[in-house]
Specification:
Elements: H1 3-14, H2 23-49, H3 63-66, H4 78-94, H5 104-113, H6 123-136, H7 142-145, H8 147-164, H9 172-182, E1 191-195, E2 204-208
Antiparallel strand pairs: 1-2
Helix pairs in contact: 1-2, 1-6, 1-8, 2-6, 4-5, 4-6
Length: 209
Amino acid sequence: MALGTLVKGLQNIMRNDAGVNGDAQRIEQMTRLFFLKIYDAKEEEWEFHDDSYESVIPRRLRWRNWAHDNADGKALTGDELLDFVNNDLFKTLSNLELAPDAPLRQSIVKSAFTDANNYMKDGILLRQVVNTIDSSVDFTEYKERHAFGEIYETILKDLQSAVNAGEFYAPRAVTDFMAQMVSPKLGERVAETYCSDWIQNSECLALAA
């Protein structure tokens, strides 16, 4: 499957879910699932080179242990999958207990899921999204690692559309960083000026935070 088609196919599945409102939420939903799939592929590599490697992700939450569907009727789906994602997967990863000097490959997991939301309300559609991601790209294959660049470019183009539709939301980490660097006084306002040459007509968005 062409990767642009993959992204479009995932978006089309999510458009049937009443909980997902707009491309910005669809993109956020996709990227977190892609993250888990890619991270699992990296862990296979780390395990191969280091027999003592231990994952920061609890065993039950690793992509390989819940996402893969063997077509035997045992894969999580429906309300059971929603409960797992909402009340176990996202919550546990966002609250990982890490040492202050934890390496980046551990801290990035917690950062990726801090303030994360699962917008989907239909567990059957969510299973379709997970199955599509799991079966379409194998990130353990060297040639397919380059495919992530194409996925990224497709998502960027969709972000452009989301901006033009008034659906662009700055990541919380970005706005927090801006506030820390500017250090505004009480009563002052921080402006996020977003300009990019890939936005049609070089439009700039100024969002007050």
